[in-house]
Amino acid sequence: MDTEQFRKHGKEMVDYICEYLETIKQRRVTPTVNPGWLKNQIPLEAPVHPEAFDAIMKDVENIIMPGVTHWQHPRFHAYFPSGNSFPSILADMLSDAIACIGFSWAASPSCTELETIVLDWLGKAIGLPEEFLTFSEEASKTISSARQGDSETEIHNGKGGGVLQGSASECIFVCMLAARAQAIKRLRKLHPFIEEGVLLSKLMAYCSKESHSCVEKGAMMAFVKLRILEPDENNSLRGATLRQVMEQDEAMGLIPFFVSTTLGTTSCCSFDNIPEIGLVCQQFETVWLHVDAAYAGSAFICPEFRSLMNGIQYADSFNLNTNKWLLTNFDCSCLWVKDRFKLTCALVVDPLYLQHGYAGAVDYRHWGIPLSRRFRSLKLWFVLRTYGISGLQKYIRHHCQLAKRFERLVKSDNKFEVLNDVKMGLVCFRLKDDPTNKLNKKLLETINESGKLHMVPSLVHDKYVIRFCVVAEHATEDDIDYAWKIIKETAVTVVYNEQELTEKREEQVDEVFELSERKKKDDLAYRRSFFVRMVSDPKIYNPIIARSSPGSRRHTHLSSMDDDIHDPLSIATSDTEDTMTQPASSWISWPLAFLFQGVFDDKEGNDVPVRFRHLATKMHFKSKSKSPEHLATEENKSRRNSPVFPRKSSYVKTDNESNMQK
After folding, report:
1. For residues 161 and 119, what is the distance between their CA atoms, to the nearest angstrom?
2. Which of the residues 31, 251, 336, 628 could staple to 132 if both were Cys, CB 3.0 to 4.6 A apart?
3. Are 88 and 379 in contact (CB under 8 A)?
4. Which stretches of sequence are listed as region Disordered (predicted)?
5. Segments of 401-546 assigned E as strands
6. Lowest mean pLDDT among 40-44, 474-478, 573-577, 653-657
7. How far apart are CA 306 and CA 347, in angstroms?
């Protein structure tokens, strides 16, 4: 692509960007694709021959855009804002065109010095103490004198300064490395004969449970221990909690060296108590206090919010992300330190090929992990100059007002509750009366699947909440009202569906219970009926009587139970035969005691298998042959031997009967 082609396609790209941002509201907020979908849309190997730019742009719209989550969409309310503005986009275009790698002052002086200056600009705008700035107030006066023609005036810099990092995670990690280096340096002076690895194993870092997960990851990479502390009822880490734990660790031989605090936590935008924590850290010589204000720090550009950073004078380092809430595109995280030499001494690696002859110049390669650095300060410079401090303050205040509007809408509905103190642009809400969190999870899932809004969950006081954050630069009250309308409508549907499901489950449970109760009643009725018939008709329970009664309709066996069964309890009674046929299985409903009262007493000991109606088992009993003369008296014996109604040998008249005879 030559200059003319770039000019042509560059204009087309600007038009495409403008069209995308102007019509973004017409797009679905989140895509409907599944993991791995793109490999089926584009080749898995790079093209061998050049392709036309028009074809590439066509694929951007038809293939790439369907899988994009539109963070600049006015219906996008997840996470925190992703900074974006036209001045920042144009500055990034220029930075990419210049394409310098500003790892040292000599590599690109403007890249280095503009970064120093704009970070001082922003540090002053948010109210940072002078110790965090590169140029003190006295230095600023000296610079003004130099501009008036006194070129020989010497400029004295302070010990502090700012630097641009890729993310807040990098800011916290490099500060933890610097704190570790300072602690090890001091301990080696006190214990020169102890190995550094042993000293490292004694170091302990601290943070709140509400701190970002990057603190834990940083401790893992730095090979140091991390103790995560419980915040108070307002999700704020307090000084008393920190002091107690640090003193306990010291008593156990551990060495506190780093404390990470947060102003504007990710879960609910809560604020740690920096004045209390700062005083505690002052009591420990080796402790480095870091303040992470990645999201809320941008709001300190408004004077009314600066009280939230009270105690910042105790901090050793401070960071905020202009690429979150200050209209600057990623990546542009700002880090300030009180003593830049403590930071750089932990990260200095100075090979010959990177050295230069400009003594005293700032080399930002010593301020972070990467060597290569883009010209990122350009976009922050463009944004600060295009909007001005007043324009950025107006933008921040507008977002906070919209968040307060949403909070009022939520509180106006008694089915919902707000669980955080809304100070910035984040509102954490949930449906009430949902101890299992099932309704709230279903509510969020349904909304996100619809593509009309996008939000994410969090935990506040161990309760599942839905985070609603104002993110779009040009968000309006209509956007907030629309979001609340979708949430309310979806909540009604979710609650109604859940009630229906609950009712169906209850009906199913009731039906099962009813069937079970009916079966119990039927069984009981049958047993009672059988008992009555049994008492009145001994043929029912006495198989011998049943067998001797030719007209009996009572079946004493089920022939279907066994193909070999022909006659239940059929026993060969012939006195002349030495062998007897094998008895068949029989159903029996009488207690076992009856079976042992002479019915199966047999000298020959023939085996009779008996199957019981209510037991899934078969038992075998020894049967005896009955002579014909015994059959006549069997009925009388069975009546006398009944286990349920045993009859007395002598009859005794009752008093009533005697009186009646009289």
Report:
1. 8
2. 336
3. yes
4. 546-568, 621-662
5. 416-418, 426-431, 456-460, 463-469
6. 573-577
7. 32
Dihedral angle sign, alpha carbons of residues 626, 629, 630, 636: positive
Asked if residue 480 lies in contact with residue 75, where contact means CB atoms within 8 angstroms, the answer is no
Sheet holding 618-623, edge to edge: 587-588, 606-612, 618-623
- Structure confidence at residue 553 as a pLDDT band (50, 70, 90): very low
Question: Tokens for 636?
Answer: 């009388």
Verify cis geometry, omega within 30 degrees of 0, for the bond prior to 331: yes
Choose among 76, 78, 69: nearest CA to 33. Answer: 69
Q: Write the DSSP string, 594-620.
A: HHTTTTS--SS-EEEEEEETTSS-EEE
Average of per-residue pLDDT across 366-386: 94
Higher pLDDT, 503 or 320: 320
Pick from 545, 518, 540: which is nearest to 530 by CA?
A: 540
What is the DSSP annotation of 233-255? TTS---HHHHHHHHHHHHHTT-E
In three-state form (DSSP H/G/I as H, E/B as E, the rest C), the secondary structure along 66-78 is: HHCCCCCCCCECC
pLDDT above 70 as % of the chain: 73
The Cα 383–Cα 326 span in angstroms is 8
Least confident interval from 36-50, 55-69, 352-366: 352-366
CA distance 314 to 311: 6
CA nearest 568: which of 623, 640, 642? 623
- Cβ-in-10-Å burial (0-12, 13-18, 19+) of 186 comes to middle
Q: State yes or no: pLDDT of 512 exceeds 80.
A: no
Give the CA dihedral 84, 85, 89, 94, nearest 10 degrees.
-130
> In angstroms, rounded to a whole number, what is the distance separating the alpha carbons of residues 417 and 410?
7
- Secondary structure E strands in 461-575: 463-469
321 forms beta bridges with 333
What is the H or E stretch that residue 290 is in? strand 288-292
Burial (0-12, 13-18, 19+ Cβ within 10 Å), 372: exposed
At residue 204, what are phi and psi to the nearest 5 degrees?
-135, 130
| pLDDT computed for residue 569 by the predictor | 39
pLDDT value at position 13?
Answer: 95
Contacts of 274 (CB under 8 A, 6+ apart): 261, 263, 291, 309, 310, 311, 312, 314, 315
- With CA atoms as reference, report the closest residue to 293 among 314, 274, 277: 274
Q: Residue 176 pLDDT > 90, yes or no? A: yes
Give the pLDDT confidence of 137-170 residue by residue, as tens digits.
Answer: 665 555 555 555 554 444 547 899 999 999 999 9
Q: What is the pLDDT of residue 650?
A: 42
Q: Which of 582, 574, 578 is nearest to 627 (CA)?
A: 574
Phi, psi of 539 (to 5 degrees): -65, -25
What token pair was written down for 525?
């009725």
- CA–CA distance, 410 with 221 (Å, rounded to integer): 42
Total-model pTM: 0.74
Q: Per the structure block, which two tokens stand in for 311? A: 């105690």
> Judging by beta carbons within 10 Å of its beta carbon (0-12, 13-18, 19+), is residue 586 exposed, middle or buried?
buried
Whole-Å CA distances, 284 to 178, 206, 243, 257, 313: 16, 13, 10, 8, 16
Segment 207-261, tens digit of pLDDT = 999 999 999 999 999 999 999 999 999 999 999 999 999 999 999 999 999 999 9
> Phi and psi dihedrals of 109, rounded to 5?
-55, -40
